[in-house]
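Dear H.,

Thanks for agreeing to be a second pair of eyes. The structure we're designing against is below in token form, covering all 297 positions.
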């Protein structure tokens, strides 16, 4: 396939790009500074001013671009979180409109934050009512922008990512650091859900979406075994053979992180019903397997 990707140089995007090139797909990665990148036989870097005429026939488009959620959520930061996603998605839709031959599939990033926060509900892709908080609003608008691809007759997937567990970047190094320093413990009352997924399973699930033509609409990119924060941290302590004793109140995180603290003190149980119904097989379906792999590899 010829695959166009945004966000292909970030934590997840770079791992996905490496996986896809290993499968002999030809990737065109949109980046702000293509002149600083080195092209290869399977990897071509392009700028965000690229037009449809400058590209070969594109089979698939994957949209992962967007401002990081990490950082103090000032008014400006929140605006950038939203506008960075809408701007790139709008550009891609216009680019696909201009293509004489449309891509077969458009996979656009989203997040399980679409569902809002709850300690009680189990959310599947059949849940249509979005939450009411900031992240739910961002993902709803992001998906609405991406939905214009459906009107072009393109199979569209809204990849609702959970918490990606990877060794080198993302949320896991921050989550595991207190454990490694012998100060592990749950956050707030520990009842908040963590809908997690090993980064390799996330890579495989996006690849699965490229290849399986009946998979479309919202897809939860999560493992089938979400955990409450207290159980997640307890398991991490067991894997790293560390104590699990320091329990910090929610107010500590709100005072130090502001509104972004809700990513830590609240959560949701997002079950990957579509992935399982379509026959996707996880390499790391359990938290034990995922944490042991991250520790040992």
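And this is the sequence the design step returned. I haven't edited it by hand at all.
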């Amino acid at each position: 396939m010829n695959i166009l990707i945004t966000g292909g140089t970030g934590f997840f995007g770079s791992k996905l790009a490496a996986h896809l090139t290993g499968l002999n797909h030809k990737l065109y990665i949109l980046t702000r500074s293509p002149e600083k990148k080195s092209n290869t036989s399977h990897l071509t870097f392009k700028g965000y001013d690229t037009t449809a005429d400058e590209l070969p026939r594109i089979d698939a488009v994957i949209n992962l671009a967007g401002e990081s959620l990490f950082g103090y959520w000032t008014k400006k930061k929140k605006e950038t979180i939203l506008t960075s996603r809408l701007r790139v998605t709008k550009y891609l839709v216009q680019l696909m409109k201009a293509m004489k031959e449309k891509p077969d599939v458009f996979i656009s990033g989203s997040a399980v934050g679409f569902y809002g926060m709850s300690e009680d509900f189990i959310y599947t892709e059949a849940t249509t009512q979005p939450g009411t908080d900031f992240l739910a609003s961002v993902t709803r608008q992001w998906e609405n922008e991406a939905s214009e691809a459906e009107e072009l007759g393109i199979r569209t997937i809204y990849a609702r990512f959970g918490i990606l567990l990877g060794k080198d970047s993302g949320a896991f190094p921050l989550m595991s650091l207190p454990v490694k320093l012998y100060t592990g413990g749950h956050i707030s009352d520990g009842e908040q859900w963590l809908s997690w997924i090993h980064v390799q399973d996330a890579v495989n699930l996006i690849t699965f979406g490229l290849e399986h033509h009946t998979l479309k609409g919202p897809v939860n990119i999560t493992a089938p075994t979400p955990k409450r924060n207290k159980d997640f941290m307890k398991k991490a302590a067991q894997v790293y053979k560390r104590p699990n004793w320091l329990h910090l109140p929610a107010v500590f995180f709100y005072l130090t992180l502001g509104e972004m603290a809700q990513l830590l003190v609240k959560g949701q149980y997002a079950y990957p019903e579509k992935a399982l119904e379509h026959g996707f097989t996880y390499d790391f379906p359990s938290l034990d397997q995922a944490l042991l792999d991250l520790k040992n590899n």
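Two observations from my side: The domain at 2-296 is CATH 3.40.50.720 (Rossmann fold). Residues 65 and 88 are 7 Å apart (CA to CA).

Warmly,
E.
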